[in-house]
């Protein structure tokens, strides 16, 4: 048995694919690549594939992590080559490395996620920087948003580790964010943008890093 941790990117061609469809895409690609994918035991076996943190619709990434289990050892480099030959445009395996079979699950290790968020400028640069500092200076920020199951209320500030101004590219600006992503809560860039006072939706959201325990 071999456990491999893959790092892959997802570009704009597939940014609106659902999590379920993405998992089906991976299962097909692994099968077509001829890799000996392991399956769970029991009445209804399922492929042993697990993502670190599902990506929201419309978000691109260069830092997705996924563990796959193979029934026999395959060279990580050969796995990269075989998968990239089968994956559609918009998904590319960037790295592959062995992981111990008894290491904790990938999902349980995620602590923070970093993003680059492109926004249309609505204020002067110094005003944007000032709003960022004001947000980071508060100890608590009560927030709410509506779900299908009802209104959820929470402390948004507890989900924000850091926000920073990267650059101004007229007429837009680029912000960096490091948000919490664990069993206690997941920060979402769209909510942070609203808290900063931007009235428009982001031009783009790109995930750049997953920080593990």
Describe the structure.
This protein folds into two domains: 102 residues, Pseudouridine synthase I, catalytic domain, N-terminal subdomain (Alpha-Beta Plaits, 2-Layer Sandwich); 104 residues, Alpha-Beta Plaits, CATH 3.30.70. It contains five helices and eleven strands; from the N terminus they run βαββαβαβαβββββαβ. 23% of the residues lie in helices and 40% in strands. It has 213 residues and is an alpha+beta fold. The strands form two sheets. Strands 1, 2, 3, 4, 5, 8, 9, 10 and 11 form a nine-stranded mixed sheet that branches. A two-stranded antiparallel ribbon has the order 6-7. The mean pLDDT is 94. The protein is elongated and about 55 Å long. The two termini are 24 Å apart.
- The proportion of residues in beta strands is 35-45%
DSSP helix fraction: 10-25%
The averaged pLDDT comes out at 94
- Domain unit count: 2
CATH architecture grouping of the largest domain: 2-Layer Sandwich
Report the strand count: 11
The H/E string reads EHEEHEHEHEEEEEHE
From the structure above, extract its key features.
alpha+beta; Alpha-Beta Plaits; 2 domains; nine-stranded mixed beta sheet; two-stranded antiparallel sheet; 213 residues
